[in-house]
């Protein structure tokens, strides 16, 4: 571990010990224990040492192996001290729960005090080698001696440590004397090391200058220049390279005075090489008369950089003849640059930028370059840090990622062989090289690193050794991959180094979706202070520093992921503390003894060799002192015993995560008194009838319990689960939450999704909520009909839960309410954002919502099944934007002037949803309808009597309109009434519907009018059985994106003129309802288009066409217009045409690009000759019962590959198709 990291870790761990020593109860105990009066002295020494360590963080204290060793020892002792103090705190919690004084500072005198003291002496006398507590897994499983001692010494313990419901013995006996001696020993040892460390630090800091880490870290990578080494060819970036050249010289940036384009990516990805090639490209040289290359590194000093840039700009003759006074300050340097540039277009490269202290510094650096008159000047910045790229950019950065496999392998071979690559080399070597290349994840620097290793020895055995041992990870030269990446790690602030350090425990390509979850993991590890989070997004900080990538999955959910090589770096820097067993071939001998955190991320079933190695772990590492155990996959639950046996005796865990959990495994971890984070995942097929661990209530330090994957399949959990008094979060189903008895004991709980009042069951009274003042997020309270009075409601103390954001108050449907003031007593906290009230059958609403309003920050209100005469005055809720009214009896009219509402009641609302309102007949707007202009969403479902929205046209900002099963609603304006309305749905059961999402319009039997003028971005229109719908030319001219139109039963939709108004790629036009004289929509339309003088050749862009009439399309002028693009033509259920005329056949032959032709024509008696369709690949004949035979083979084009007669009933046709296949072996017949 590097000295800076060692100092930081020691400082952090000593600080954790001091925090525990400062706890009131622990401090009192320490003062009364064997340390006695020495406690304060010891604590002062620790504080003194921490002060020196804190002062040394960020300073250069050299790299003294002795000091580094002492710091490591101090860190280990701090871990021990934290364990023993945590253990003491555990028994203090147990005393608090049970009302005992076993771990109290003074046990007192009298019979009770002497009895307690006697028990501790008895336990200590049994053997001072025993731990401070006896830890039975279940009743009766202790060794006989310990069991006898426990029986003898616990005779006066508080009863109730076991029960008849399957719970285990909860209470662990405490050995006071052993605890005191253990604390004394570890504190004294820690203190003695502190003295040595303090003395050394004083000497070091006295002799070394104080240089902040952010300015001290030097780039171990050598400075860069603009010259491209001869052997450094640009691989796999030709497309982005050409695009960038064009953008620099003639495209995007050409008309701008100055543009800043960053190139961002992890170390070794090829940013500098890419930029060097740009810099030296002939087109770039010709375009930029002045080019400057500066390597910035970590020292972003404006004056230094300005001076360097000035030195790189050629001096003009005019300046040479002028004064030669050397500029000394920033102003003179900047003026000198402006003079030398002399309005020339310039290109400046700032390579390897690590930091810029402020935006002000950046603007100061750019100041002399923003005054020139010539446009198109550029600044190119290369950086590893997305945060830097974001600050300096004037245009979107170019992100460089790993090379594609083929390009990377070409580079890899060049790194191995140089210019002497053999044309053919051994296949075995090629295969090994490809396997190695896959592990390098497209990194050019990795290709260089490993290429150097492979070229040393061209034997298969040597290359296989490199592959199997990942030897490039141990390469130590500055220009090797991991040392290069470690520069980035060394540059991180210490708190981010800690977060990155423990990412090694997760599998490669692991996606972090839940920020809260990973933060909880870090809290349990002790690297995040839960009291100082301030909602910081630590993952985003790692993104800004280039250590994580932020992306979205196919569902649009954001996640964070680490680049594979950075994952290797994480494993490398944490290798003495963290191990991730990710291969069945791992060997225990490769694991350091100092490991404290272990994860298993193997994706395959465990084999016998793996099981044997796992069982050897105990002989190498101290299993008992593991802090983290994470098992990401346990494919074979029968092999779970391997983990049980391998980790038996584990006791110091802070984090336990097990996926695919065998039933018996949790009971194997019964004495985890330090445990803070527990996540158990059940195999998908084994979720039914699961039991949560019976030992769960024993984990008093547990902060985070994650059983979310179990959903509602837990049929049993310990009734004493409320002993988990430190619990902050329970990630599980809401049903699990509602089944926890005496939840009021968990006073730190922050997450309770559901609570059900059960007066007949002990521990489910409403008063249980009274002490839960830390609740955040949402809470739903059910069965409120059982609450008899306002006083009982007050006991929930809802208004004291200041962090609660969403509250649902639910009474049983149809239940009699005996006290109308119950809701009055359920007053929410003033910061509440969302409120729902369901089935409160009383005529008057509560004062805190309806008169003396106390929740003025409310944003969403849902009222369901209420019977209030007057609705709340929404205008007094200035942040209320979302209103939902449901199942409200007696409401006939909704709007201003009714139910206590005024015109101002709607002035803030953005979303209104009305659902299941059987008596509502009208929604009125009042005299001041413009107040509805703020509305963005209206949803109206199942209102059978609702007849009008008289104000809908006033909703100028409406984005969503959703009307379902409101059959009497008739007064609706043409939809969408504004271009902002891009989420539209109107449905009447299964009979007719209208839907529109901004790009896709579907209308099926819709009788209302459509406002096509407001659909300027629509791409697809599908209209069925809507004969009244028509499209004008002006409407179509607005639809620049329209590419597909399907119209069935819509005689009025087309006009001859609009084919020139829009470029379609797909058209389907059907209308079976018309008589033979007007066969189809297209039949009446397309001949008009053919003779239209306004249309011009090439105005059609149809690629797909489907019509119900052969005669509508097979017209020579039309086919000429379609010939250039049409590749699919489908005659769909033409029920009129019997024969194809000679003129129609000639027109068909004009479609020279046609590839697929479909006939579904029930009266057609013969096919036309098709020999002229030189591009035709597929011919389909379906439901053409009139066709009795196929044309002769010479009437088919030679290009035909597929003949589909599968839907033909005629046996003769299928036989003739087979004969055609015999004559043309390339033809495939589908029958």
UniProtKB/TrEMBL annotation:
Domain NB-ARC span(s) in chain numbering: 243-418
Region Disordered, residue ranges: 137-167
GO biological process: defense response
GO molecular function: ADP binding
Domain R13L1/DRL21-like LRR repeat region: residue ranges: 766-887
Keywords: Leucine-rich repeat, Plant defense, Repeat
Protein name: NB-ARC domain-containing protein
